[in-house]
Amino acid sequence: MELSNEDLDEFEIVNFFDTADYQEYWIEQIGRSDWAASKFLVELLKENRFFEVLGEDSKLFLLTDGESLISFCTLSAKDDIPDTELSPWIGFVYTKEQYRNNGCMKKLITFVEAEAKKQGIKKIYISTNLEGFYEKLGYKFTSTAKDINGEDSRIYCKKIGGFLFF
Questions:
Q1: What value, to the nearest 5°, has the Cα angle with vertex 97 and ends 9 and 75?
Q2: Which of 101, 2, 15, 110 minimizes the C-alpha distance to 57?
Q3: Comparing 68-72, 78-82, 158-162, which segment has the lowest mean pLDDT?
Q4: What is the pTM of this model?
Q5: Percentage of the chain with pLDDT > 70?
Q6: pLDDT, tens digit (0-9, with 9 covering 90-100), for 129-152
Q7: Which of 3, 51, 74, 136 sits between 20 and 30 A of 104, alpha carbons compared?
Q8: pLDDT over 70 (residue 27)
Q9: Is the sign of the CA dihedral 133, 124, 145, 48 positive or negative?
């Protein structure tokens, strides 16, 4: 599916926790994704463990087109790298397959970075196995660490505010 900038401008970004009347609907939509980690996110939301696991100030952002879920990600104190001082994290990053490579995730991550910057956050981290995508968004590879499953994960960092040197 080819999207224009006008199409992207039509999409709305919402904080899941500001959608009280629609949370069950959005949980169902997240659960329909073809990614195993989304199932874990659904479990955290349904069992009211989201804040316990990811941190009390965590947020879940949804990129939507009306009632269609396009992308989602979290901004949280914790992610899938245990025992680390690194924080905060953009995590649970997902875009539906038919919307990939059209700027949807870039739009969502740029929004999340702006939200983090408003909170005075100066740098933000991402844990992933992807190579090449986050670099295009200004993230720098910093290290490899074991995730909660004992697998290697690439750690990326981006300066989003103030003066910071790597």
A1: 65
A2: 15
A3: 158-162
A4: 0.91
A5: 93
A6: 999 999 999 999 999 999 999 999
A7: 51
A8: yes
A9: negative
Alpha helix (H) ranges present in the chain?
5-10, 23-31, 36-46, 50-54, 104-118
Residues 6+ apart with CB under 8 A from 152: 129, 144, 145, 146
Q: Quote the tokens at residue 10.
A: 């039509």
Q: How far apart are the first and last CA of the chain?
A: 38
* Residue keyed to tokens 């290697």: 152
CA proximity to 41, closest of 81, 80, 88: 80
Residue 22 corresponds to which tokens in the numbers above?
A: 């629609």
| Distance (Å, whole) CA 68 – CA 24 | 14
Instruction: Tell me how far CA of residue 72 lies from CA of 82, 142, 165, in angstroms.
Output: 22, 24, 29
- At 68, which amino acid appears? S
The two beta strands, 140-146 and 123-128, are unpaired
* Contact yes or no for 76/91 (Cβ under 8 A): yes
d(CA 51, CA 62): 17
C-alpha distance from residue 110 to each of 13, 51, 137 (Å): 11, 23, 8
